[in-house]
# Entry
Amino acid sequence: RGASAVAFDALFKAIGHRAIEEVVPALLERLEEDSATALEGLRQLLAVRGKIVLPFLIPQLCTPPMTVANAKALGALAEVAGNALTSKIPTIVGGLLEGMEQGDDTESIAVAAEKVVHSVTEDGVRMMLLELFRRLEDITSPAMRANASRLIKAFCSSTSLDYEQYKPEMIKLLVHQFGYVEEEVLVAAHQALTALVAAMDAADKKDDAKASAVSCGAHIAIVYDEVKALANQADAQGVPGFNRTKGLAPVLPFFLQALMHGATPETREQAASGLGELVQSTSDAALKPMVVQMSGPLIRIIGDRFPWQVKAAILKTLSLLLVKGGIMMKPFLPQLQTTFVKSLSEHNKTVRSRAVKALGQLVTMSTRVDPLVNDLLGEIKTAEGAVKFSFIQAIEAVLGRGSKTISDAVMTKAVLTLTELMDSDDEEIRAAAASAYGAQSSAATDEGLEEALGRLLESETNWTKRHGQTLALNAMLKHLFVAKRFAVIQSLKSVVGPAKNLVGDDRVPVKEAVSMAICQCLRILLTQRQDEELQTSFWRLVVKLLEDKSPEVRLAILRGVKMVTKSSNPEDMMTAMETIIMPAWSCLKDKTPAVRAAAERTMLHLLQLYACSMTDASTAVLEALGPRLKEADFATLKDYAERTISKGADAIAVSDDDEDAPEE
# Structure
């Protein structure tokens, strides 16, 4: 064979390309019969005239359909061709990828393709990877994307070449594959990304086995953007690739390394936020095996001195983990409790707010809530200003979600502390304490509720005390409604008299508070369709408040009426509509812009104008109202409804902006 190669070289010098045209096709034909010796012959030709033979040989071997013999020939030639193969890499890789999809023996062709990938020289890396990237973007063929991922895995697993500049695009494209539903695509992308991460980690530890792996963290921005895009596009089930067994395993290193070793606070913040995106877009079953791996670094970093943005992002992600991680988070509860309580003392409001929310999640899983309540009550006594406010909010979260596991002695202590704070000169502290006082009602006994209600209805000469009690009454009724504790209806008659006095109070904040308390009473009564006479008594107070001289009071009652209407059936509101519809309509002409805007939103719900046509619900409400109203009033309302509907759905949606609505 060696001698014949020399002879071929001499023949080529004598007759030129005719030598190739006569000899190479004969060797190609023999590939099917005696592939081993035919391949050796082709290797000899490449050794003496590689750059001349390859341009003729490659198109012949890559002509579809790809056969196993041709694929093996390409794999064998790649091992000896060296740089002579560089310019033909796209043709070779493309032909093999198509053969992996449509060839006569796809697995054998795939093995040959992997040989080609292993044999690519430094000069050919760019052209090979660009071809693979192009195939990864082929949305028409899942099999093509899966095959491209397989070859990337083969390359990353074995190469010692430098491909650093291509890693960002490679990472982006592989993570993007996790959004597809085809199993073959997900498996191949998972394996390819795992191989890439392993290669990057190995490079970090090349000189020191104990060194930290950090390279993945440098690509956090790309991975974060791609994960966020996948999460936005996913359905309620989450991102398909993340929901597989250990689906998060090759993605987590990018976030964890950036969180632990990020060069800037912004990098660590992005990593913490990205972990939150992963939690939200992964099924509970797939997430649970990864909970411990994610939680440890988050707890470690939040304890260090990093800017508030990093801590806020970590707190948000830890809250999400508490919700979805379930029992897997139990080992971390003591550490988390300490972390969350400590975060309540931070200067930044966002950090404190997220710590409050996180404590609310944690207490649902904790069996020992008393020590936590005692800690919070102790901090309330010494804290000041905004920090004190946050500790009171934390007490509300704990009482609202964990009151069933709090002992009577500790609960009594909490109620006494909150009662004192409800008389505070600071209106924010007063309101927060009142809201927390109401939170403990959802787990109280019926007798305990009646006693608490009675205390809140006691007459007070001090206006701040009256204000605090009325706010607490509103909070209590709101929590009872959410908890569906409708036995309180028996006690609502006792509210009418004190409420009537508070409607005539000389302090605007008191009247604002009683506005919402009255509406909470109405919401409970309407939901249960009980005591129309009592409802009428409350609706009369609503009319008085709609006509109050203070715009703040009018604004508060309009928001309350809207809240009631949204949670009630239109037919149950008919008696009330007869009483309040025209006073509410009059507020559309109010001198205060905020009141006019609130009246607009309230009228939309009272008249059910969302059908955007004078049919269906809107017509039904108007027709039912007709016999109950004066003819002139009915004509006014009908004209208003027609003008509102003529604005179209978009205008109605804008005018129903709920941003300033009370918490329901």
Remarks:
- The chain has a mean pLDDT of 87.
